[in-house]
Amino acid sequence: MVPALMQGLVWQRVLKRLKKNGRKDEILAAIKLWETARQRGLFTESQKEKMRDTKNEFHLTADNNEEYLLSPVHNAYYLHEQKIKQPGEPTFSTYEFNNPSKAQSLSFIITMPANNESDADVSFDDLSIAINQQDILNLPVHLTQKQILYCDGKTIKLFTSQWQLIQTIEPNRSLPLLSPGKNEIKFDGKFSAENGAPVKMEVRVKGNSERLNVK
């Protein structure tokens, strides 16, 4: 009785948090999809073993024909820090991202994680991203510490920390492509003042999908 009661209390707290989340419908739909697949025994032992590793991330989808696709998600994290530059010295940061999958549009999550040394009022504006010498992607956005800039490979949206939509960003061009293998990423923007928090960018790609055997 006690474990069951504790589980019930934990689930109540989860639901309370979800009510404040702007993407709660997506989250609940994903939970239902994963639970349905689990109950139907669609995952192989090999897949289960990979999913037990918290370092691994997966994306599950299903179509109207009840065909389930399991896709690994590969990601990498980068920091863009505010530095004192000499006149004429470039301000952008350069990263290398290894894409183990096929070519696909850029997906990312960009935030300004708070820390004790930064000024919470400093924003990061006019972001730009260039990949492998492609045309620069300019994003007219005003990012603060309590916001999330999210791109799913199709659209770019600015959210609050609770995933409440603030605005949809209209870029100057189509999303750049990440090629298979090594990619050079150049990232830049403008801090509104000194002592801004480092900007964190997570780059995400989907790996090759596995079709689950529906029983």
Describe it for me?
This protein is of the alpha+beta class and 215 residues long. The chain has a domain at 75-206: Jelly Rolls (Sandwich). The chain is 20% helix and 40% strand. The chain has helices at 2-20, 24-39, 45-52; strands at residues 57-62, 68-80, 93-99, 104-105, 107-111, 124-131, 137-143, 147-151, 156-160, 165-169, 177-178, 181-191, 199-206, 210-211. The protein starts with a helix and ends with a strand. The relative contact order is 0.23.
Quick structural gist:
The protein is α+β, with helices and mostly antiparallel strands and 215 residues long. Helix content is 20%, strand content 40%. It has a domain at 75-206: Sandwich (Jelly Rolls), CATH 2.60.120.
Question: Strand percentage, roughly?
Answer: 35-45%
Q: Low-confidence runs (pLDDT<50, min 5 residues)? A: none
Q: Helical content, roughly?
A: 10-25%
For the record, the CATH architecture of the domain at 75-206 stands as Sandwich
Report the span from N to C terminus.
34 Å
CATH topology of the domain at 75-206: Jelly Rolls
